[in-house]
Amino acid sequence: MLTPLRAMELFKSTVQARGENLDHQGVLIETLDGQQVFASENSDSLFNPASVMKLATSLAALKTLGPDYRYRTDVRADGRVDPATHRLDGDLVIKGSADPMFSRIDAQELGTQIVRCGVSRVTGSLRIAGPFYYFATGYRCNLSRETSASKLRDALRRAGVIIEGPTVFGAASGEALVSHYSDRLIRILLYQNAVSSNAIAEVVGESIGGPQAIQDFLIRNAGVAEKDIFVGRPSGLDVNRITPRAALQVVRALITVLADHSLEPEDAMPVAGVDSGTLRTRFAEDGIRGSVIAKTGTLVTIDNGVSTLVGLARTRSRGTLLFAIFDSDGGVKGYRKVQDQFLSEVIKENGGGLQSPRVEDALANNPREAFSQIIPRPPTDPSKTATAD
Q1: Is pLDDT above 70 for 378?
Q2: In a domain, 358, yes or no
């Protein structure tokens, strides 16, 4: 059932007045249950979602691993430890499991724990086993495994662990010394989506099987038709494709998965005008602020410029509305202004916005402030903590 919005006509006229082609714009706005449609324009056409693809990655990760999942990194001593000299005659082994936010703070804390376990000098190599990445804010893409290993080695040295041999890559073996557990997956995903971190999304995607696994998941579990989706990168970099209708299927499935764990949409997506990140200054005016929970997407050079916005808006007279806005082949900054005007008018036309219960910035504190745990030797009951073994 189509219930037209006056705001949709304003959107069309604004786009055309800018000299943009309506064929390059996709819009779908409907009720949470999908029974009532308020706006639709090219809703079954394929568009490049840019970083909105991170919502699909989030959905697949939450369903596959669960919101309380923690990535585990083990440190092993492959050789004899002399308790008198605190020397390991052998290799120090780091067994990674694709922790997407293992940082300098984590590495230094890990080094401190290694020293406390009786190892301050390693005569052999630093051996990296499994997928290990070193997260650094400000990097849009992942550091290479060689650079990640080098930064880890430096952090361990600063913490008092001297490694005499080279850095090598090989299999995991040896006796467990200490284990590092990441923050909960749901917290990682909120940070990923709020600041739109490509580096985190790529590693999260790798941890659940990569782009093809995400695409297969959407087709099997989210009701997305095969013709309506192409996942090229978990982060949304480069070329990906999805229809506005499929994008709302992803949002609806994400809301359902979160609800199954007594979580709200704002536990995985930023609140506009409240949370740090790409939506911090958008939809911040009175009557709108806090009512939009969404994911942005931006590509400047691919598809002649892409700006996307997908998520939900809580309104007073219509309840929760799901929206997908895909603008391509035009100026990104201009499209953002059009989106903000359009969605704000939609909310006003439906009685104004209902503010999220969370009114404070969820990322106000340093996102790398010791969210993780470091445990000397693995837990005796590994079933108590999820791992990526």
Answers
A1: no
A2: no
